[in-house]
Design goal:
By secondary structure, the chain is mainly α. The protein contains five helices and no strands.
Length: 83
Amino acid sequence: MKKMYIENLPLRAAEIAPLLCRGYGNAEIGKIIHLSYYTIQTHVVKMLEHTDSRNRMELAYKLGCYEKEMEMQSYIKIKGKGH
């Protein structure tokens, strides 16, 4: 499965991707970056199509969101701050 990291996305998609990775919905993302729900929906659909993703979870995986989260969790455990 080909991964496409956030840094490789067009500007607006790169702005949306981190919020999508955090689990925000289209309406929430729109409020945060001051775009309409439908504009966000359009960008997400284009991102899904561009990455051949079936859903937002698969898109987040292909963007490397979970990989970066895992790196952070490993770092916390190594530093002795995790449970």
